Amino acid sequence: KNEVEQSPQNLTAQEGEFITINCSYSVGISALHWLQQHPGGGIVSLFMLSSGKKKHGRLIATINIQEKHSSLHITASHPRDSAVYICAVRFLIGTASKLTFGTGTRLQVTL
Amino acid sequence: EPEVTQTPSHQVTQMGQEVILRCVPISNHLYFYWYRQILGQKVEFLVSFYNNEISEKSEIFDDQFSVERPDGSNFTLKIRSTKLEDSAMYFCASSEWLVYEQYFGPGTRLTVT
After folding, report:
1. DSSP, residue by residue, B34-91
2. Given an 8 Å threshold on Cβ–Cβ distance, is A95 in contact with B33?
């Protein structure tokens, strides 16, 4: 079964802390997306990866295709980073355009 | 920066009524998608659309649902006869090409009473 799992489900950090959110998936993929969902519900695309590592500002995303695992790192976290972070993948087997989503990691960054 | 827009932001309807949710994708994008998120649950794929036809649809996307691109800019999701369980946030997204990054709209919150 094509599944996406994220950990942790909830994460509380103090401002300035280094944060890691993990995503693992069950079978081969063509692409993995990291998304941010704001408290109001809107979704913003942060990264799309098929290999290696990408960096944008304080955000870094890595993927290990062999281990079927990706991580999203936030350096020097800030209260405005508080949101739900969602991993979504496009599996190789089966449908080409469908994204399968994880349940999300709720991050709360406090002062 | 170009963005995906959706209207309305919130729609309340009675069970059995038809609703149309509207989206304006980014203008040079070729692939369009609808997703839904029931409160407290994960986002789920509904349908993808390319070249004026459905590319893929999920098991959720039954005969009660339809999509259309009535003109060069709008992309709509119609639910023919709404049920209580259709209450959810519906997101539209678009991408330049199939394996490119998807850009999401702000969502339409549908409440069926």
Report:
1. EEEE-TTS--EEEEEEETTEEEEE-TT--TTEEEE--SSS-EEEEESS--GGG-EEEE
2. no
B51 burial type by CB count under 10 A (0-12 exposed, 13-18 middle, 19+ buried): exposed
Q: CB contact, 8 Å: A83 with chain B?
A: no
Residues of B in Cβ contact (< 8 Å) with A103:
41-42
CB contacts, 8 Å: A104 with chain B: 42
Coil/strand/helix, residue A80: helix
Q: Express each pLDDT in B85-111 by its tens digit.
A: 999 999 999 999 877 889 999 999 999
Among partner residues B31, B43, B98, which is closest to A86 by beta-carbon distance? Answer: B43
Over the stretch B43-88, which tens digit does the pLDDT of each residue have? 999 999 999 999 999 999 999 999 999 887 899 999 999 999 999 9
Chain B residues with CB under 8 Å of A35 CB are 104
Average pLDDT, chain A: 93
Which of B48, B100, B107 is closest, CB to CB, to A98? B48
The pairing of strands B44-50 and B19-24 is unpaired
